Amino acid sequence: MSTSARKRLMRDFKRLMQDPPAGISGAPQDNNILLWNAVIFGPDDTPWDGGTFKLTLQFTEEYPNKPPTVQFVSRMFHPNIYADGSICLDILQNQWSPIYDVAAILTSIQSLLCDPNPNSPANSEAARMFSENKREYNRKVREVVEQSWTAD
């Protein structure tokens, strides 16, 4: 069963293996090219530094014309990440374009960690804290980072 989505995902995977962007990794699950596991490492010199955050990416046969469903498996505290781990990010919704590949998706999510959009909150507590009490916000982020070391 070799659809254009599967061919594209194989190409994305090859590119990710040959030229991996800093701080991200991802691969399809053994028997399902449409379901990927990924890890994003918290960027250096940020409150997220040292964190290892697991995600899943669920693609459909309509990829790359439709974006994947991306969710954090790791517990997160972030203005643009819902309690269930789903992510409020424009390129995963209304700004999607087929030029984005898996590496671009993961890189965008990684940069969202440090550069949240508190005006489009998925987690209103995190958004409020990010805007009003950065120190407390950073402390909560550090807790999530430490949990990421021990969580499955």
From TrEMBL:
<comment type="similarity">
    <text>Belongs to the ubiquitin-conjugating enzyme family.</text>
</comment>
<keyword id="KW-0547">Nucleotide-binding</keyword>
<keyword id="KW-0833">Ubl conjugation pathway</keyword>
<dbReference type="GO" id="GO:0006511">
    <property type="term" value="P:ubiquitin-dependent protein catabolic process"/>
</dbReference>
<dbReference type="InterPro" id="IPR023313">
    <property type="entry name" value="UBQ-conjugating_AS"/>
</dbReference>
<dbReference type="InterPro" id="IPR050113">
    <property type="entry name" value="Ub_conjugating_enzyme"/>
</dbReference>
<protein>
    <recommendedName>
        <fullName>E2 ubiquitin-conjugating enzyme</fullName>
        <ecNumber>2.3.2.23</ecNumber>
    </recommendedName>
</protein>
<keyword id="KW-0067">ATP-binding</keyword>
<feature type="active site" description="Glycyl thioester intermediate">
    <location>
        <position position="88"/>
    </location>
</feature>
<keyword id="KW-0808">Transferase</keyword>
<feature type="domain" description="UBC core">
    <location>
        <begin position="4"/>
        <end position="150"/>
    </location>
</feature>
<dbReference type="GO" id="GO:0061631">
    <property type="term" value="F:ubiquitin conjugating enzyme activity"/>
</dbReference>
<dbReference type="GO" id="GO:0005524">
    <property type="term" value="F:ATP binding"/>
</dbReference>
<dbReference type="Pfam" id="PF00179">
    <property type="entry name" value="UQ_con"/>
</dbReference>
<dbReference type="InterPro" id="IPR000608">
    <property type="entry name" value="UBC"/>
</dbReference>
<dbReference type="InterPro" id="IPR016135">
    <property type="entry name" value="UBQ-conjugating_enzyme/RWD"/>
</dbReference>
